[in-house]
C-alpha cells in the first residue's frame, strides 16, 4: 500500500480572487490571464489532479501573466471530474487510467492553435505541476512548437524514450517528495546527460514535499517560504531565458 501521494492539505487554503477570465476553445474550457500590455509570448499552465479551477493553479497563472506573458490554463480533464480531497486513495489508480498525463496532445494542439491564431503568439512556453509536470515532460518530447518547458514534480516513469527532449526543459523537485524517489531523479539526470541534445536543468529544493511550489503566499509555512519563492523565481527565469 503506497502512501497517499498528495499530502499537501488542499483543505487548508485561503480563498483567491482571480485576475483573469474563462474562455471556451473548441471542446475545452480554459482560464486565461493577460498582462496589461501587448505581448507575442505565451505560457500554457497544466494543472495538477485538482484541475483547472483549483485556486492555487489560477494564482500561478496570474503570477506568470504578471511577468508579461499571456498565460492560459486549459481544462485538460475535458469537463470530467478532477480528483477531490474526499475521494478514496484506493480508487486513485483507476482514476489515473482515465486521466493519463501522456494523452494530452490533442488538447495541447487546440490551445497552441488558439494562441497562434487569436493572440498571434510567436513563442510559447509550458509549465506543469505534479500530474501537469508529467504532461509537460511528455509534451517536451513530442511537440516542437513548445519553446521551453518547466516540469514541477512530475516524471514519466519507465520509458526509454523519455530523455530525448526537443526543447529546453527544467525539472523541479522537492527533496522530501515521497512520490518521486531520489533514485528516479538520479536516473533522469544520468540519462539526460546521455541522450538530451538541448539545454536542461534539474534542481531539488531542500526539505520540500510534493506540491510545494504552487502555494499562495498566505498558505506558506515560514520555513518553506524561501524555497517556494526560489522555485518560482527559477521557473520564471527559465521561461524568460527561452520564451
UniProtKB/TrEMBL annotation:
Domain (Dienelactone hydrolase): residue spans on this chain: 28-241
A GO CC term assigned to this protein in UniProt: cytosol
Gene Ontology MF terms in the entry: hydrolase activity
Domain of life: Eukaryota
InterPro entries membership: AB_hydrolase_fold (IPR029058), CMBL (IPR042946), Dienelactn_hydro (IPR002925)
Subcellular location: Cytoplasm, Cytosol
UniProt record similarity statement: Belongs to the dienelactone hydrolase family.
Protein name: Carboxymethylenebutenolidase homolog
Organism annotation: Probosciger aterrimus (Palm cockatoo)
Gene name of this polypeptide: Cmbl_0
Amino acid at each position: 500500500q503506497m502512501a497517499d501521494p498528495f499530502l499537501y492539505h488542499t483543505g487548508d487554503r485561503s480563498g483567491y480572487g482571480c485576475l483573469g477570465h474563462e474562455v471556451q476553445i473548441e471542446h475545452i474550457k480554459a482560464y486565461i490571464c493577460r498582462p496589461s500590455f501587448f505581448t507575442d509570448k505565451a505560457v500554457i499552465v497544466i494543472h495538477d489532479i485538482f484541475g483547472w479551477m483549483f485556486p492555487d493553479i489560477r494564482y500561478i497563472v496570474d503570477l506568470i501573466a504578471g511577468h508579461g506573458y499571456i498565460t492560459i490554463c486549459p481544462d485538460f480533464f475535458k469537463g470530467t471530474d478532477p480528483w477531490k480531497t474526499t475521494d478514496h486513495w484506493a480508487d486513485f489508480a483507476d482514476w489515473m487510467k482515465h486521466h493519463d498525463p501522456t494523452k494530452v496532445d490533442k488538447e495541447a494542439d487546440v490551445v497552441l492553435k488558439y494562441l497562434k491564431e487569436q493572440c498571434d503568439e510567436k513563442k510559447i512556453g509550458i509549465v506543469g505541476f505534479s500530474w501537469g509536470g508529467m504532461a509537460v515532460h511528455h509534451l517536451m518530447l513530442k511537440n516542437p512548437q513548445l519553446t521551453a518547458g518547466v516540469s514541477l514534480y512530475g516524471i514519466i516513469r519507465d520509458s526509454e524514450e523519455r530523455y530525448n527532449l526537443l526543447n529546453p526543459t527544467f525539472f523541479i523537485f522537492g527533496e522530501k517528495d515521497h512520490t518521486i524517489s531520489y533514485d528516479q531523479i538520479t536516473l533522469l539526470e544520468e540519462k539526460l546527460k546521455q541522450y538530451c541534445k538541448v539545454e536542461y536543468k534539474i534542481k531539488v529544493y531542500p526539505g520540500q514535499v510534493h506540491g510545494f511550489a504552487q502555494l499562495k503566499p498566505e498558505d506558506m509555512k515560514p520555513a518553506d517560504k524561501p524555497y517556494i519563492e526560489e522555485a518560482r523565481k527559477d521557473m520564471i527565469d527559465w521561461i524568460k531565458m527561452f520564451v
